[in-house]
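Changelog excerpt

This revision adds worked examples to the README so contributors can see how folded entries look when concatenated. The first example is reproduced verbatim below.
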Amino acid sequence: MVFDEVDTGISGKTASVVGEKLQKIADSHQVICVTHLPQIAVMADHHLYIEKQTQASDTVSSVRSLNHDERIEEIGRLIGGDTITETTRVHALELLELAKKKKTVILKVGKTMSEKIRVLIVDDNQNFCTILSEHISEQDDLEVVGIANNGLKAVDLIKETMPDIVVLDIIMPHLDGLGVS
């Protein structure tokens, strides 16, 4: 399931509840979520940072996994904007630790983490798709099942490779950060 900016129009406690609901959905489905709220982002198992830069007349996309320290910085950026202070970092770490405890409870209920996360890449920028596919292929727990350059091709690939997946939104016009659960 792909959730593109599911956080529009919500904040605070509601965002925390949405993050928990997404985590519960992730028990039985692959979830890809684009968010700008720390309460939702901290519930992800994996974080990919996607950046688009304009060079001359071209737009270049890059993607990279965030390690633990980078996750703290990115959650801190979501909390504090451009200015990340030590207090912001402490708060980001606290949110990540609280989310970890919530997810541990969910795991104890019976979720297994042995299956690979299947990823379908959808973007009209072939360079971006190639970079993302190479990055995902380097991960032990992720598997690229297809690349689609438009929504119709994506739906066909989903039907072929992931019949149990429900597609809510496959259009992502811009990405600042991507959390994968």
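The second example, added in the same revision:
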Amino acid sequence: MAPPPVATATPTSTPTRDVAVVAAGSGPAAAALLALPVKGRAAKTGYSRDAFGLAWGADVDQNGCDTRDDVLRRDLTATTVTAGSGGCEVATGTLTDPYSSTTTIPFTRGVDTSADVQIDHVVALSNAWQTGAFAWTPDTREQFANDPLNLLAVQGRLNSQKGDGDSATWLPPATGIRCAYVARQVAVKTKYRLWATPPERAATARLLTGCPGQTLPTEATSAVPPPDPGADPAPPAAPVTTSPSPRPTVEPTSPAPAPVQSAGLDPRFGTCKAAIAAGYGPYNQRRRSRVRLVPRQRPRRHRLRAPLTGAPDARHDGLIAPTAPTGDGQGLSTPGSGRVTG
């Protein structure tokens, strides 16, 4: 990649005592600091995160993984990757936070847990914009935002606390990391030809006086490891489903045929004699195939009536029969009644 355009910087302050001490010879980081242009911050007008490309979605190094996962694989230990990601996407791991040095953070990918570990731009994007990046092409800004030299996995809380501060306004709480931290800022600004503000250079020089021989990090020492497809766990096997054995086919059974009755017989009785004994009969055959059951008629009982004397019969002509001397109440006229009983 071609180096970004050089922004003209005019020194606005004279070298401080700290810078003079550094110039006396402390190491590569101090020498690189003295070579940086010095200038006040430019306006923040026009800055936005989008000006540096898609946040963590770019695959600038063309290794098949996004930048965030590249840095997580480099800076976390005991990592596992998500199945089906080709060894790219970090699912779990452990971070020893460089900014606090004593904090160990278990990382688990997820909506509620991923922010516990964040990727810090050591030279903040807003700081870069105000020290020369405003003049870059969009491609150069995207390259800068995804450069592993400028990226560290850190505790989310401290990354938010830092904001866009430089070495004059914010330093890691862990004092043992501060020399390496400012040396990385100097290396990034040297690579991309950004300038330092006077307070920033003075603060960095004071730190480097306590780090004789401090070296600069390089692209080789900051490189991210390639994805390891072999670390990609095999997706879980699909559950084996067994179909139930088919039930044996049962042929429908026809109902047993009704017993065939002989023509002319009542199906309720085995013989005519039995039917007659039960009070049925005689049987009349109207058709060959149908038999009608006629209940047997019981003989009608008639009450005996004494013959009436006289003629004609009073029941037929309406005349009252002559009175008989005596009567037994069975069809005889009662003396003095004038009515016929029975």
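Reviewer comment on example two: The two ends are 143 Å apart (CA to CA). Residues 17-217 form one domain.
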